[in-house]
Every structure is written in C-alpha cells, then in structure tokens.
Amino acid sequence: MNAKRVFHLHLVSDATGETLNTVARAACAQYEDARPIEHVYALVRGPKQLERVLGEIEAAPGIVMFTMVNDELRARLERRCAELQSPCISVLDPAMLALGQYLGKEISHKPGSQHTMDAEYFGRITALNFTMAHDDGQSAGDLNEADVILLGVSRTSKTPTCIYLANRGIKAANIPIVPGAVMPADLETAEHPLIVGLTTSPDRLVQIRKNRLLSLHEKADTDYVEPEVVAEEVAFARKLFARNGWPVIDVTRRSIEETAAAVLNLYNERQKTG
Questions:
Q1: How far apart are CA 205 and CA 117, in angstroms?
Q2: Nearest to 130 by CA among 174, 72, 91
Q3: Are 144 and 242 in contact, with CB atoms under 8 Å apart?
C-alpha cells in the first residue's frame, strides 16, 4: 500500500475559520491518498497578524485557502503566495460573486458577518437549551414545543444528531426506546413536532455498544450487547415506528451530519405541506 502524500495546508480567516475549515476538510476528504498538515489562523484582521501568517507559510510551503474581505490584506496574501509559488484560494469568492451578480449588490466587507448576534443567533441558543433539557427522554410535559423528536434504541446517534439540529435552530428532543418502558405521556398528544424514528443494523449496533462498554471499562457480558436481544430491540422499535406512521431513517452507514440532513429534509418538506 502506498504511503499517503503529506502536504501543508494553511487556512487563513478574518473570522472564526469555521466555514473555511469545513470547506477545506470536505475537499481534502476526496483525496484518500493525501494527508494535510493543517495550519489554522483565525481572526487575521491586521497587517501584523498577516505578516506572522506569511512567515509561517514561507517556513512550511503548501496550499493556502482563505476567507478575507479586506482588499488590502487579501492582496498582500495573494501577492506573497505568488512569490512563494504557493497556490492561494479564496473559497467564498465564487459564491459571493454569483450572489452579487444575481442581487445586483456589493458585498458588505464585514468580517465574520455570519456570526452576528442577531435574532437567528439567539434562536440557536434557545434551541440548544431546549435540546439539552430534553435529552434522553427528559420532559417537563412540553414535548409539543419541540420542532423535532427523535426516537430510537440506545446508541443510534440520537443525542449528537439533536445537538447538530439545535445548532441549526431546530428545537430537538430525543427519547430512548426500551422494550417494556413507558414512553412520555405527552408524546402521544404532541401534534406540532415532526417525530422521526432512527434505526440501524443489529450487527452494527452490537459493535458500537461493545466499543462503548470498552471505553467505560465495563464488562461486555450483558444483554446490552447480546445479538439476539439487540435484534429484538431493533425489531420492537421498527414495529413502533410503523404502528404510528413515523418516518424512519437508517443510520447504519450515515454520519451525524448525514442523519441530521435527512431529518432536516423531512422537516422542511413537512413545513411546506403545512
């Protein structure tokens, strides 16, 4: 097997760098035979900060990706990268150019505009607080205030998916399905939220649960990882979903982001149909 090609990847941003890092990692993931050594520079908003960055790039030449709206700073960055023969890519330029042409407007040149503390920001905070207060079956009789409720047996990624949704402004609650256990009473009367069932392959679930027990240094000789018991749990959950007509998402081969995206698709479709 060939060794992965290692290269330096410099990520320069005048904001938090969250958008840039996400784009860069998504791009790099398409090249399995290469491994980037990331150099991350956030909040680069002045000449002194930029000069420090340029020194780092000169010391470890590689690809430079950036999000900067200050024309003077980005011009200096692009000019120096050209001198060093380091590729220099503005990842937001194509999107901003297309938007500007369509809207007939100039960009605001305001760094970090997507992180402004506006109503949308506080909406995400409210959603996150709701989600944390309604994790793992917790309920104060207010499940009808949720936007989304996820149900599934243990270790079907309910909590991380809910947190991801909360960061998108969705108030998400999750409820574990345990055969024989009583579900929250207000689940039956909840009409506002989209209720979604999460399921997975029993074999995959057994492996995930075993790894969980190992990480907690607990014994693995328990019904929690017994294949037949796990298969019965999954079957019980599937029957519950079918009986109530709840949409089901199989998370066996999905990442948290992919599961959340599938939930959002269902949620948005439901919003359209009323």
A1: 40
A2: 174
A3: no
Q: Which residue has the tokens 């999000």?
A: 67
Is 7 strand, coil or helix?
strand
Structure tokens at 62: 């590689």
Residue 209 Cα distances to 75, 156, 196, 226, angstroms: 52, 10, 22, 10
Return all residues near 198 (Cβ < 8 A) that are at least 6 apart: 150, 151, 152, 156, 157, 158, 161, 248, 249, 251, 259
- Reading the block at residue 27, the tokens are 């791009």
Residue 1: the pLDDT is 46
Structural domains of the chain in order of their starting residue, each with its CATH number: 5-114 (3.40.50.2300), 119-273 (3.40.50)
| Average pLDDT of the residues in 228-233 | 96
The answer to whether the beta carbons of residues 97 and 44 sit under 8 Å apart is no
Q: Note the pLDDT tens digit of each residue in 100-158.
A: 788 887 665 555 554 454 567 678 888 989 999 999 998 878 999 999 999 999 999 99
In this prediction, residue 100 carries a pLDDT of: 79
Which alpha helices (H) appear in the chain, and where do they start and end?
Answer: 18-28, 47-59, 71-84, 93-103, 119-133, 158-166, 185-189, 202-215, 227-244, 256-273
